[in-house]
Amino acid sequence: MSEPAPTSRPSAPDQPSTPAPRSRARMLELVFPKDTNYLGTAFGGFVLSLMDKAASVAAVRHARGAVVTARMDGVDFRLPIRVGDAVALDAHVVKVGRSSMQVRVDVFRENMASGEQQLATTGFFVFVAVDEDGKPCPVPPLVEGAGNAEADDRP
User: Fold this and answer.
1) Distance (Å) of CA 138 to CA 54, 58, 95, 130, 132
2) How many helices (DSSP H) and strands (DSSP E) are in the chain?
3) Fewer CB in a 10 Å sphere around the end CB: N or C, the chain?
């Protein structure tokens, strides 16, 4: 009888594992025709959905548990994002309360051929950490500089 296959790959001894950054998340997504309007630019709802996903990852990492989106505000669409562009998102927790977190999300449009990135959209999201019963629960304090160690590096 053979042994069951391992559920995850072990780390190589010469390659130590690195923990995920707390309070920060980055994503990259391509824009396809199905994501655009008749002008060939990304639907605002498509961009907002990506922003909510990136922000929620940053919030979950910070809270170390489940979160729910409570609010999104201050979303500014500055530049259109077109079919064939990449959407690079950088989300980081900027403020915490007892059970809530404010997350800033910067969205860059990237020309895939040149690699040039331009800030296209910025927004703020508020998340609340919840326990197993869906009730608000405390979150850790924000460590100064946490999540911003690479703030000048674009996604």
Assistant:
1) 21, 16, 14, 8, 13
2) 1, 5
3) N
Q: Could you tell me the two tokens for 34?
A: 């199905």
Torsion angle defined by CA atoms of residues 126, 132, 138 and 142, in that order, rounded to the nearest 10 degrees: -60
- For strand 100-110 and strand 86-96, is the pairing parallel, antiparallel, or unpaired? antiparallel
Contact present, 76 and 122 (Cβ < 8 Å): yes
User: Could you report the average pLDDT of every consecutive run of 10 residues in the chain (155 residues)?
Assistant: 48 53 93 97 97 98 96 94 97 96 98 95 98 96 62 48
Contact 41, 80 (CB under 8 A): yes
Ramachandran angles phi, psi of 14, nearest 5°: -90, 0
| pLDDT attached to residue 155 | 54
Which pair of structure tokens corresponds to residue 63? 């809270």
